[in-house]
Amino acid sequence: MPHLSRAQVQSFHQNGFLSPLPAFTGDETLELRQRVESIEAAAGAGKERAARAGLPVTHAWAWDLVHDPRIVDPISDVLGDDVLLWSMDWFIKEPGPSFVSYHQDATYWGLEPHHVATAWVALSDAGPRTGPMRFIRGSHKGPLYEQDDTFEDNNLLSRGQRVKTDVDESRGVLAPLAAGEMSLHHVRIIHGSDPNRTSDRRIGMVLRYCATDVRQTKVDGDRAILVAGEDRYGHFEMIPRPATDGGEGERALARRHGLTRHKALMED
């Protein structure tokens, strides 16, 4: 992926998102999907989500992946030259009723200022029937709304959070992706997604990046990975490249990191 054009950067800042963008080849995408699903299978039923957590902390291939210039270059075009990876997460929507309510990430992550953007990479088809993301165009320029923690059944969000406002659906833009494509979106944009009405799982690798001037305001001891430029601020503890995939030290760090991140996400 080359750097974004000036028009693409302007579109991101105007609309709050950019989609679709190329990221990985078909073979690379299949290999990534197989890696993740192998990790899930090895963990066993009911433990898949925990097994996927913190992969850049425990596995060198995931560390290298979040540095991939096909992702980092476009992210740097919208965030600036000095960039951190704050998290790798997974939104895997199985066929069925699971959905994501309209929400704003900035409300509960604790990251300020809001120089934060997400790269959402499709590792399977994320076409219109899979429940792809829907963005409310330009909403990142509006207020940061309070959110209800609904804890709704089938809501994939950690607290079932939903913005306390009447969402202007006329500004909604569906953002389907082919496997191997990605979208970028601003941390303040209102977005959500409908259920997956296909027979295959919709696998989204979700990479949250921020400029190095961003700090964590909710908890102490948050961690990140420097992926571009240099960190002149020192607001985060740096996560080293894993020396041994799944090693004892790597897993211990991942557990500590997971507890810190959980506290940040769940604290009001």
Can you walk me through this structure?
The chain has 268 residues and is of the alpha+beta class. Helices cover 29% and strands 27% of the residues. It has helices spanning 6-15, 26-43, 48-52, 55-58, 60-66, 69-79, 106-109, 248-266; strands at residues 17-22, 83-93, 100-103, 111-112, 116-122, 133-136, 147-149, 161-163, 172-174, 181-186, 191-193, 202-211, 215-216, 223-228, 237-238. The strands form 4 sheets. A 7-stranded mixed sheet has the order 1-10-5-12-2-14-15. The chain has a 4-stranded antiparallel sheet with strand order 3-11-6-9, with no helix packed on it. The chain has a two-stranded antiparallel ribbon with strand order 4-13.
Please name the defining characteristics of this protein.
alpha+beta; 268 residues
